[in-house]
Specification:
The complex is a heterodimer of chains A (630) and B (214). Chain A is of the alpha+beta class and 630 residues long. Chain A folds into four domains: 241 residues, Rhopdopsin 7-helix transmembrane proteins (Up-down Bundle); 102 residues, 2-Layer Sandwich (Beta-Lactamase), CATH 3.30.450; 86 residues; 159 residues, Histidine kinase-like ATPase, C-terminal domain (Heat Shock Protein 90, 2-Layer Sandwich). In chain A, the strands form four sheets. In chain A, strands 4-3-7-6-5 form a five-stranded antiparallel β-sheet, sandwiched between helices. In chain A, a hairpin with a 5-residue loop joins strand 13 and strand 14. Chain A starts with a helix and ends with a helix. In chain B, helix 5 packs across helix 9 and helix 7 packs across helix 8. The chains are: A alpha+beta (630), B alpha/beta (214). Chains A and B meet through helix 12, helix 13 and helix 14 of A and helix 1 of B.
Chain lengths: 630, 214
């Protein structure tokens, strides 16, 4: 309908086509300006949109001015419109510079400021010198036909300041070309071609058109707006694409943020549930960040600054060096660490901490941060220590009850030297009653007394060593010495019980790794058990044999065999159960304790029956490291 | 019989104690010999010398009780005293039943030790006298003929001559002749004395316990 009426009215409104094109272009520019202004209002950081909005506004204004100039009736009207048109040109050029700066993020600032400065100066000149920047005076209006219509052309006296205007346009061109090249070199080729390229193209076209029009070389009115509108279209297209991408990104970001938030929530829940504290140490900036839970574990308030040295100071002095070493090694080794250590809280409370961590490296393999998880293991540690204590306690009880069995043997051992001391002292007293005592003899007696005193002391020391509670203190133990010592300890007891005690130690046995006192306790127990078994049998052959031999390249085996009745086959394993006993007075703790001790040494203890009768208790012990590697 | 001084033989595997107790007993005037094992003592001791044995009950190989039984099988058993660091009841009972003179702890009071040794030596002296007397009596009884011993066995049971003659199937006069020979050979005056000597010599009762009871 509109097109139809337009055709019908063409003859009547001959100039309306230019009016329609120019005003439609101007309104399109204004629409783009409005949209981009609104975008900027919502995202204040989107400066490119604001500047584009100004550019489009300027273009619309210049388009309007052009239309007006084409329709000018008098030279004064033409000059006045051109003067005001320069405001729009100022806005366009300043916006272009700003757009290049904010959108391409390149261009030399001094060039930008120079363009801005000169154009502003030209705007001032435009209002002060002559009728406008182009003409000192528009003398007459000519006419030509465009799209079949008559449009106005100006003729007049050239304003000399126009040269500066031309220079300004060249500067703008240089600025844009430089910025475009920089953008191209940076790798943003798309932006360089579309934005940079189109600005250069349209500026060249519009400038040359303006020059041709101005100097009258070509008879043409000012139609630079066509170029500016093209520029606005390209830039608007780019910007809207950018806006769409940004909104897509924004949506994705929101989605992933929501996902991240969900993951974080889950993590927090898991971490809180597991009572874990997390810490992250930035090795580059040397900063430590930790969750509130971690801070609470180490006794830090929520805002206190964390420093590695200070944290290490909170660690128990006995554990500090180990932790330091572990942290140091973690950045060298496979990148992970774990440890258990004690933390001394400022209030004096002690806390056990279990830690796991991992080192993260950059692409060159250089460690950049350590992430760690810590949790409170005090309860577990206390339970562990308690059960260890209980084990020690049981071992102690076992030793004490065994001491009861051995008391007579030890009393005998002590009575020997004490008896000798007594008799020697009595003899010395008698010698001294003589008128001329034999001093030589008395001196010999005193020497003997001293020797026997030391002997008695040694027996007591040995007994004390057996009674003492201790944890395993593993050292290389000479097998011949350790077995020999135990056998000599029970020898008199064996003699009193008419049990033959035989000892065979293979030659060149390497030392085993173990705690001498505990191993002696085990062997003592087995030998005493063997003698009990011999008593039980009551047969003619009363014998207990101890044999130490090499069992494989890394193990020594010690066997205690007796000539007793043996062990019923169904009880061979049961005898190692706690509180299982075949003896009237036994507690049933001896063998379980022995097994515990041997297993703590990395060995094995078991019982078997010999084919020729009697039982054999065997245990293995690992050879001490140094000798095993030799 | 007392011309040779009695010897205290000490047997102990503990060299230190052995030296000490030997010193003490020497200082008390005893004659002492020391041995580090029962075997050593059995090998070295003189056949018939007065003395006693002081032995550790607990020794490797041959202990005190083994030594005691070995010693009792010799013709001249010496009284044995046991020393112990710490005696257990079964060993003590067995030692005493087998006739141990005494049972001493190694750290027993000196007086107890010296008294026990003195007592053991006195007992050895007595037993040696009894053994000497028995030997002398036996030589006297050895002179009796088979028939005379037969008659004697009846006489000490208090039987009359007529009963003896009936039992042996000989004449009463012959019994009288045998009795006269017996009394002159054994140098006895009365039947009571004859009975006592027969008992002392232990002719008819197999191994006569020679030491006083209680």
């Amino acid at each position: 309908m509109a097109g139809l009426s337009l055709n019908e009215e063409r003859s009547q409104f001959q100039m309306s086509l230019i009016t329609i094109i120019w005003s439609m272009s101007a309104s399109a520019c204004l629409t783009l300006a409005g949209i981009n202004f609104l975008v900027w209002c919502r995202h204040r950081a989107a400066w490119a949109n604001l500047i584009f909005s100004l550019l489009a506004t300027g273009t619309a204004a210049w388009t309007f001015c052009e239309l007006w100039m084409m329709r000018a009736d008098t030279p004064v009207e033409f000059a006045t419109v051109l003067r005001w048109g320069h405001v729009a040109v100022w806005l366009i050029i300043v916006s272009l510079v700003g757009f290049v700066h904010f959108y391409l993020k390149s261009g030399r600032p001094w060039l930008a400021w120079t363009v801005f400065g000169t154009r502003t100066l030209l705007l001032v000149v435009n209002f002060l010198v002559g009728q406008n920047l182009n003409y000192l005076e528009v003398t007459r209006i000519g006419h030509m036909r465009l799209f079949g219509e008559s449009v106005a052309l100006a003729q007049g006296v050239t304003n000399p300041w126009i040269r500066l205007g031309q220079l300004n346009l060249v500067l703008l061109l240089i600025f844009v070309v430089d910025a475009t090249l920089a953008t191209w070199r940076r790798g943003d080729r798309h932006d360089a071609i579309t934005i940079g390229g189109s600005i250069i193209f349209f500026e060249l076209v519009s400038t040359s058109q303006s020059l041709l029009a101005f100097y009258g070389i070509a008879r043409t009115p000012y139609v630079a707006s066509v170029c500016f509108i093209g520029l606005v279209a390209v830039m608007g297209y780019e910007l809207s694409g950018e806006t769409i991408r940004a909104s897509q990104l924004d949506r994705k970001l929101q989605e992933s943020e929501a996902g991240l938030h969900e993951i974080e929530e889950r993590m927090t829940l898991a971490v809180e549930g597991a009572d874990f504290g997390i810490w992250i140490r930035d090795l580059i900036r040397n900063e430590i960040w930790a969750t509130d839970k971690w801070r609470a574990l180490f006794g830090y308030s929520k805002s206190e600054r964390l420093e590695l040295d200070r944290i290490l100071e909170r660690i128990h002095p006995e554990d500090r060096d180990t932790v330091r070493l572990v942290l140091k090694n973690s950045t060298h080794g496979d990148g992970s660490y774990q440890g258990e250590y004690r933390v001394m809280l400022p209030g004096g409370e002690m806390r056990w901490i279990g830690s796991h961590g991992r080192v993260e490296c950059d692409s060159s393999g250089k460690p950049i941060l350590i992430r760690g998880v810590s949790h409170d293991i005090t309860a577990r540690k206390l339970a562990e220590m308690e059960s260890q204590e209980l084990r020690n306690e049981i071992a102690h009880v076992g030793r004490v009850s065994m001491m009861g069995q051995l008391a007579s043997a030890l009393a005998h051992e002590i009575n020997q030297p004490l008896g000798a001391i007594l008799r020697n002292a009595e003899a010395a007293e008698l010698y001294l009653e003589n008128a001329s005592p034999d001093l030589e003899e008395i001196r010999a007696i005193l020497a003997d007394i001293r020797k026997d005193d030391q002997r008695a002391g040694a027996v007591i020391d040995r007994m004390r060593a057996l009674l003492r509670r201790q944890s395993l203190d593993k050292r290389p133990v000479d097998v011949r010495e350790f077995v020999g010592e135990v056998v000599s300890l029970v020898r008199s007891d064996a003699a009193a019980r008419h049990v033959k005690l035989e000892l065979t130690v293979a030659s060149h046995l390497p030392p085993v790794s173990g705690d001498l006192v505990h191993l002696q306790q085990v062997l003592l127990n087995l030998v005493v058990n063997g003698m009990d078994a011999v008593d039980e049998a009551g047969g003619g052959d009363r014998r207990v044999r101890v044999i130490a031999s090499l069992d494989g390249p890394r193990t020594v085996e010690i066997a205690v065999s007796d000539s007793g009745p043996g062990i019923p086959a169904d009880k061979l394993t049961q005898i190692f159960d706690p509180f299982f006993t075949t003896k009237a007075k036994g507690m049933g703790m001896g063998l379980p304790i022995c097994r515990t001790i041997i297993e703590a040494h990395g060995g094995r203890l078991w019982a078997e029956n010999k084919s020729e009768g009697g039982a054999s208790f065997r245990f293995t012990l690992p050879i001490a490291e140094e000798s095993a590697t030799k | 019989m007392n011309e040779v001084a009695p010897i205290v033989h000490i047997v102990d595997d503990d060299a230190s104690f052995l030296v000490a107790i030997a010193r003490l007993l020497r200082a008390h005037g005893f004659c002492v010999k020391t041995y580090s094992s029962a075997h050593e003592f059995l090998a070295q001791r003189a056949a018939d010398t007065p003395g006693c044995v002081l032995a550790d009950l607990q020794m490797p190989k041959m202990n005190g009780l083994d030594l005691q039984s070995a010693l009792s099988q010799t013709p001249n058993p010496m009284p044995i005293l046991f020393l112990t660091g710490h005696g257990d009841i079964p060993s003590t009972v067995r030692a005493m039943r087998d006739g141990a003179e005494d049972f001493l702890e190694k750290r027993a009071p000196k007086k107890k030790l010296v008294d026990a040794v003195t007592r053991a030596l006195a007992r050895d002296f007595r037993e040696r006298e009894v053994r000497a007397q028995q030997r002398e009596l036996r030589t006297r009884f050895d002179t009796l003929t088979e028939r005379e011993l037969q008659v004697l066995s009846h006489v000490v049971q208090g039987r009359l001559n007529k009963q003896i003659a009936g039992d042996l199937g000989i004449h009463e006069r012959t019994v009288k002749l045998h009795r006269t020979a017996i009394t002159s050979k054994l140098k006895v005056q009365s039947v009571a004395e004859l009975t006592r000597l027969t008992q002392e010599a232990g002719i008819f009762s197999e191994p006569v316990s020679t030491f006083p009871k209680g």
